[in-house]
Write a structure and sequence with these properties.
heterodimer, A: 363 residues, mainly alpha, 68% helix, B: 162 residues, alpha+beta, Alpha-Beta Plaits, 2 domains, three-stranded antiparallel beta sheet, 27% helix
Chain lengths: 363, 162
């Protein structure tokens, strides 16, 4: 990896400049404020971009043009929508549980923020390098369902309640598969730290090095994580055709925008984890052979941030492809899929991966 | 054993059908430039091509001699679900046989009530009616939506049966 693409040069420079100006405590507080602001801006920008991408991609899949009036190729459409949502009145329904009703959007938004804190998007572009990053993300991402459940319950509306309950049943089930698929890869990476997982793929991505079980784990992870984000063929919590809007029926204005945004940022988080575990995060495409040294060297000239976001975009595109192709499932079919298919396959795959790791039958 | 085979067969079939669906939508996505069917109507008004089967409004077909094929049998009037067709018939004496023959005086068509269901065109035994491809049919007054479909001075074609 070329050192010139390392963001720690930039962040380290800023840190030194700040240290020369003020005391260590003040430096820490200033850096936290800067990072927090950047994170909020990043999430808001990614939300706008992803919503626009979703609408454009959906339109192309359905042979439509999609938004094309506001700005060139409709690029300012989501900004206009966002401004509209900002200016709307915030209404709390009469019979709602006021405190929980207003709390739910923040809990839902908290999850992707926490998860984004440990994800490395490029070399050095990571807020916090935890040695238990994978564990932290799996723990934090299960909190998102709490917000959905609270929102569904506190709205005091039958549609919201059913949507929230469905989401709870679904996410609690699919958490198992997501975690097991991640653990399958952790056998290979031998580390829970996300930056070390990426470093372990400097001689080739795990989906190539881990061959069959890694490929199966990737498919299982993709399926289960699509369900976990309440998207695609598993969007039972919203269920437009049955439950008007599911858990966020009673929400409007910026509170609705929070639920909407969290769905898309969750997708970003899930895609980032898939990228890190299977496609090497920001690591360029390397082949684990001796004759490929020159090829690996050429690949190093593409910056890590391009690799990172390119691969995340690819996984997000896959999830969008699923969403606009597959028919929706019923709640019993969804639970069947998890408990009768994904979970047993995951367990067998886990064993297979352990055997392969023991026998050393990987690249 | 058979249930186990069915289990794995089900997985295989499921993946296969999902891949089939993804191929279809994937083709559309990557050939979007060619395949998109949206027409940006007011912008492309000069080059707009209306499909042949587009239902604009009901017309009566007249040939170059200003003759139509309607003998006033009122099948279209009876077929119309919302009563937007009213036929006023007349009788003339056939000079050769001396019998009274029924002809149409006015084939009145209320476009304001029409849902363009095509039932009158299908009901017509002599194919006198058709749908045209007209659009931009809006007017400022309701009375302008009542049409007399047979052109002034037109008469029935000779070979149309009673």
């Amino acid at each position: 990896m070329n050192a010139i693409y390392d963001f720690s040069i930039l962040t380290g420079g800023i840190h030194e400049r700040l240290s020369g100006l003020m005391s260590p405590t003040a430096v820490m507080i200033t850096e936290m404020v800067i990072i927090g602001t950047l994170l909020i801006v990043f999430v808001a920008l990614m939300g706008l971009v992803l919503v626009l991408a979703e609408r454009k991609v959906a339109a192309f899949f359905q042979l439509r043009l999609g938004p094309n009036r506001v700005g060139p190729w409709g690029s300012l459409q989501t900004l206009a929508d966002f401004l509209k949502l900002l200016t709307k009145e915030l209404i709390t329904t009469k019979s709602a549980d006021k405190f929980l009703y207003n709390l739910a959007p923040f809990i839902v938004m908290l999850t992707p923020f926490l998860a984004l804190g440990v994800i490395p998007f490029a070399p050095g572009l990571q807020i916090m390098d935890m040695n238990i990053g994978v564990f932290f993300i799996t723990a934090v991402s299960s909190m998102g369902v709490l917000g959905i459940l609270i929102g569904g319950w506190a709205s005091n509306n039958k549609y919201s309640l059913i949507g929230g309950m469905r989401s709870a049943a679904m996410v609690v089930s699919y958490e198992l598969s997501v975690t097991l698929a991640i653990m399958t890869m952790v056998i290979m990476t031998e580390s829970l730290s996300l930056s070390e997982i990426i470093a372990s793929q400097s001689d080739g991505w795990w989906i190539i090095k881990g061959h069959i079980p890694a490929l199966i784990a990737f498919l299982l992870y993709l399926t289960a994580s699509t369900a976990e984000t309440n998207r695609g063929p598993f969007d039972l919590a919203e269920a437009e055709s049955e439950l008007t809007a599911g858990f966020h029926t009673e929400y409007g204005g910026i509170k609705f925008a929070f639920f909407f945004l969290s769905e898309f940022v969750n997708m970003l988080v899930v895609a980032s984890i898939a990228t890190i575990l299977f496609f090497g995060g920001w690591m360029p495409f390397h082949l684990p052979f001796e004759w490929a040294v020159g090829f690996n060297h050429i690949m190093d000239f593409i910056p890590g941030i391009v690799w990172g976001f390119g691969k995340v975009t690819f996984v997000i595109f896959l999830m969008m492809w699923f969403r606009w192709t597959f028919p929706r499932l019923r709640i019993d079919q969804i639970l069947n899929l998890e408990w009768k298919y994904l979970l047993p396959m995951n367990l067998v795959n886990f064993l297979l991966m352990a055997l392969i790791a023991l026998s050393g039958f990987y690249l | 054993m058979s249930t186990i085979i069915a289990y794995f067969k089900g997985i295989g079939q499921g993946l296969n059908t999902l891949w089939t669906g993804m191929k279809v939508t994937g083709y559309y996505f990557f050939h979007a430039r060619k395949e998109i069917i949206t027409m940006q109507y007011p912008d492309n008004r000069d080059t707009l091509k209306i499909p042949e089967r587009f239902r604009g409004r009901v017309v009566m077909l007249h040939d170059q001699n200003n003759e139509h094929a309607c003998n006033g049998c009122t099948m279209c009037e009876m077929a119309c679900p919302n009563g937007s067709i009213k036929i006023i018939t007349d009788k003339i004496l056939n000079p050769e046989t001396g019998k009274a023959v029924r002809i149409i005086d006015k084939h009145i068509y209320h476009f304001s009530m029409c849902t363009l269901c095509n039932l009158c065109v299908q009901a017509c035994p002599s194919n006198a009616l058709a749908m045209d491809n007209s659009y931009e049919n809006s007017v400022y007054d309701r009375s302008e939506l009542t049409f007399v479909l047979n052109q002034p001075g037109s008469k029935i074609r000779d070979n149309v049966k009673d």
